[in-house]
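ASSEMBLY PREDICTION REQUEST
Request ID: AP-0331
Submitted by: J.K., bench scientist
Number of chains: two
Total residues: 494
Priority: normal
Notes: Please return the full assembly, not individual chains.
Input sequences:
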Amino acid sequence: MQTVGPYPPAVIGSHLDAEALYRAHSEFVARFLLKLGVSGQDVPDLLQEVFLVAHRRGGFVIGAAKPTTWLAEIAFRVASDRRKKTKRKPEDVDTEAISLVPSPGATPGDAAESRQALSRVQRALDALTTDKRVVFVLFELEGESCDSIAKGLGIPVGTVYSRLHAARREFSRVHDELSAEPGAAKAVDGRGKVIVGAGA
Amino acid sequence: MSESPNQEPVRWLDDPSASAALRADLGHAAKAGAGGVDYAATLVALRGAIASQTGALAPAAMAGKSAGFKAVVGGLVIGGIAGLWALRSDPDAGMSSGGAAPPTAAQVVEAERIDPATGPAIGPPRPRVDAPQQRATTPSIVAPVSPSPMEAPRPSVVDNTVDRAPQAEADKPTRRPRVAEADPADSGPADSGPADVADDVMREAKLVALARKQLGTDPAKALASTKLHGREFPNGVLVEERRAIEVRALAQLDRMEEARRAAEAFLRDFGDGPHAAAVRRAVAGDDPLQRPAQ
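STATUS: Completed
Returned structure:
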């Protein structure tokens, strides 16, 4: 049973079972799996597997870390395991049905721009090794602190810093290339100025 | 953007010195959700998988005695049917773990599908097994009293920095229909034995799956199916899903006042559940299924 965060003393040691974790964090895990590069059609099974592993580990005990990064570590392992075992044919891959989608409430124009942005981000993430990708996604996209990531993944915080540093360098390089591609969507700042291609 | 690799950096999204293009793209990615995931079906599959791994009974923390038993039997039955279907038609289906493979989410989703050609595979109404009025909270979980029978115990401490409302009910369902024949085991009078409980759960799952399917094509029928579910399974395990479908169906029928009232009630009970975002979108007129066909 994992003990983990910044919680009031009164709840330290409280137990969250697999279903409670699922209800609170299933969307986070599904989103995280997609950002790790898991195929959309694998997401339901891996989503289930993540919480099944959480159950096997005896659930989550509130302590030093956070349930999200704890689940992220499980998701990372489950996704890596699936990647090793599965050699999926390209034609089997259906990325349309389950995928990252723009936030609700976006106008059609915003949604189109958002999809292009998501595509660039995913392609830049694809350039990262899985170790670096996990750290980058948790820090930059999910807003987790390095300390929380370290506790969740069970690695020294210095390792998180170095992986994040390397991931940022690589991500930025690829993102710049993608943004400079002909036909790349032009991001526009608040004053209507085109900003794609600006160096990171 | 040139911080040392040995210290906590500033997140790019919060760093004005980072490239504006980069921040714009990361902003979209940070706000993106996972679309098309059927969280309710996966939860059913998860319960079944846990039940099959733990033998006869789910962990005490999963639910109260009766609800837990129901979930276990239901999961096993759904898993069994899904497994049979998988053996028949999908050689790749199944979990990698050894022993008796628990049902995967995809299998359960398949098992719940109704073939439009054959109609609903829902048996005639049967006397209901007494359902627990409320799922019991578990001493090992810090949870408030559940507001409705469908509510699992919710942790009172949840990470609010990442706990966004789950975004997408399956707006674009993935692997659609397969017939999952209902076990027509209508033998003898109903009692509260395992077979009856399992049958109830299966019939409930099929009814909700039917309502969900109709949502995309015929919201009036979807609404009728939710009413039927409400009568037959007032305290069923899929009440949350049914009530979300009801809101979406009302909104699709442009019965917005009723939709808003139903949504308010839904969000009071399930405001942080997996269907809350879809319900909010529906009453905001942003349900993908409401958009006119091109």
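REVIEWER COMMENTS: Residues 157-180 of chain A form the longest helix (24 residues).
SIGN-OFF: pending second reviewer
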